[in-house]
């Protein structure tokens, strides 16, 4: 049986607006982040998309976004948290390690500074989202998480070249997947905000 996952990035935060590195540290949603989440809520209503279950990361920017998108009960899961950037947390994005186009990430660059490796985040995201979708009563699911960890999850299922050419993942973007036989198939990205 095919199931559907709507994987949403949280709304814009103060750190996003200021160009600060935001992984396990948190900052509140901006007025734009709040307004954009409400636009996604309206999109779901206009398209009669309903969820039998909803989940968010334990970080407030994700759960606050989810609460603006739906008023249904939801579960917060630590496994959905953002990449830990170690000592880079809260610093200006100019300090980010250099992106390696061969591997499509910065790899282990944050590990010496107390952060996570890209592989560890990807493995965690694949595991937790598979566990969510494997639950018998989860057919049409909404999950709100974070940009970098969602990107690494997506990279597990489609080629890097396709992501670079076809996937724009802004704040409040929603990635739609089909799920069957413990595999995710990326369908499209829903962007209803500027």
From TrEMBL:
<dbReference type="GO" id="GO:0004619">
    <property type="term" value="F:phosphoglycerate mutase activity"/>
</dbReference>
<feature type="binding site">
    <location>
        <begin position="9"/>
        <end position="16"/>
    </location>
    <ligand>
        <name>substrate</name>
    </ligand>
</feature>
<dbReference type="InterPro" id="IPR001345">
    <property type="entry name" value="PG/BPGM_mutase_AS"/>
</dbReference>
<dbReference type="InterPro" id="IPR013078">
    <property type="entry name" value="His_Pase_superF_clade-1"/>
</dbReference>
<dbReference type="GO" id="GO:0016791">
    <property type="term" value="F:phosphatase activity"/>
</dbReference>
<dbReference type="Pfam" id="PF00300">
    <property type="entry name" value="His_Phos_1"/>
</dbReference>
<dbReference type="GO" id="GO:0005737">
    <property type="term" value="C:cytoplasm"/>
</dbReference>
<dbReference type="InterPro" id="IPR050275">
    <property type="entry name" value="PGM_Phosphatase"/>
</dbReference>
<feature type="binding site">
    <location>
        <position position="61"/>
    </location>
    <ligand>
        <name>substrate</name>
    </ligand>
</feature>
<keyword id="KW-0413">Isomerase</keyword>
<protein>
    <submittedName>
        <fullName>Phosphoglycerate mutase (2,3-diphosphoglycerate-independent)</fullName>
        <ecNumber>5.4.2.12</ecNumber>
    </submittedName>
</protein>
<dbReference type="InterPro" id="IPR029033">
    <property type="entry name" value="His_PPase_superfam"/>
</dbReference>
């Amino acid at each position: 049986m095919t199931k559907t996952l709507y994987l949403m990035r949280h709304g814009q935060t103060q750190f996003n607006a200021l160009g600060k590195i935001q992984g396990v540290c948190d900052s509140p949603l901006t007025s734009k982040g709040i307004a954009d989440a409400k636009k996604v809520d309206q999109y779901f209503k206009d398209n009669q998309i309903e969820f039998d279950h909803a989940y968010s990361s334990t970080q407030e920017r994700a759960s606050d976004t989810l609460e603006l998108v739906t008023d249904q009960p939801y579960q917060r899961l630590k496994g959905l948290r953002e990449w830990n950037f170690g000592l880079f947390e809260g610093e200006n994005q100019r300090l980010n390690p250099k992106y390696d186009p061969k591997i499509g990430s910065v790899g282990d660059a944050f590990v010496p500074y107390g952060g996570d490796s890209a592989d560890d985040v990807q493995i965690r995201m694949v595991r937790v989202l598979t566990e969510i979708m494997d639950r018998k009563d989860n057919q049409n699911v909404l999950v709100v998480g974070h940009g970098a960890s969602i990107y690494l999850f997506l990279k597990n299922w489609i080629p890097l070249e396709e992501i670079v050419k076809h996937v724009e993942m802004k704040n409040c973007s929603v990635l739609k997947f089909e799920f069957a036989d413990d595999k995710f198939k990326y369908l499209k990205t829903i962007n209803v905000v500027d």
